[in-house]
Design brief:
This protein is mainly alpha-helical and about 220 residues long. The protein has one domain. About 75% of the residues lie in helices and about 0% in strands. The protein has 10 helices and no strands. The chain has helices at about 10-35, 40-65, 70-80, 85-90, 105-135, 140-160, 170, 175-185, 190-210, 215-220.
């Protein structure tokens, strides 16, 4: 039963506190503005939490014994599919131009808080996965996979914000998705968006690993 739940350790307790603050801020905004316009932030934060739940589950399973290869790679694929939702919330700043966003400073802070929580979920999840990868691959291969994951997340943001695809569209409309992906490769802005968001995600990850005590030691064994 333990493997099905988040551990109530110090990190997860503080993470839940931060997420609770975001939800409370949204509820306060609803009360003040009498509008649920920014409700999509709650949904987007839920999507951003999925990769974290997956990586935590994988870590918990690995502690009770080695994950079978097929379970590891299926779980990793599911995690990768939803990971772009974590940094994606940054792009919700675009909604500040909407006519429903009539409390500019509160709305800016609201989006910032949700975006920060999304980033935290994604970065901490990436830390979890790097630990799992390090137990299977060399440090160089692990670092390369992490970098590619960040770049793919940047492209995932492009697919979500500009082409309006969701993570589950890989299963529900794969032909349309891959067709759009193929044609998008001719768009110069695709590479700019991908490298900008993917690169920023990777830089934040590097900063996190350099800042948190014991992370490198835990990852590299």
């Amino acid at each position: 039963m333990k493997t099905l739940m988040l551990k109530f350790d110090n990190r997860n307790i503080k993470l839940m506190l931060s997420i609770s603050f975001a939800i409370a801020l949204y509820v306060a905004r609803v009360k003040i503005a009498h509008s649920t316009y920014f409700g999509f932030l709650v949904w987007n934060l839920f999507l951003a939490a999925i990769p974290y739940f997956v990586s935590q589950w994988m870590l918990a399973r690995s502690e009770t014994g080695a994950l079978p290869k097929i379970v590891f790679w299926l779980s990793f694929s599911s995690w990768l599919l939803f990971l772009p939702n974590s940094p994606y919330i940054i792009t919700d700043l675009v909604h500040l131009h909407d006519r429903h966003s009539n409390l500019l400073w509160l709305d800016m802070f609201l989006v910032f808080v949700f975006a920060l929580n999304g980033l935290l979920l994604g970065l901490l999840s990436l830390l979890d996965i790097r630990c799992l990868l390090a137990s299977r691959f060399s440090s160089k291969i692990t670092a390369l996979i992490v970098f590619l994951v960040c770049i793919l997340s940047g492209y995932g943001i492009y697919l979500g914000r500009f082409l309006r695809f969701n993570s589950w569209d890989l299963l529900t409309k794969p032909v349309t998705l891959f067709s759009k992906i193929f044609y998008s490769l001719n768009e110069p802005k695709v590479y700019l968006i991908t490298l900008a968001f993917g690169g920023f995600f990777w830089i934040l990850y590097q900063l996190l690993t350099a800042t948190l005590p014991g992370v490198e030691k835990k990852v590299l064994g």
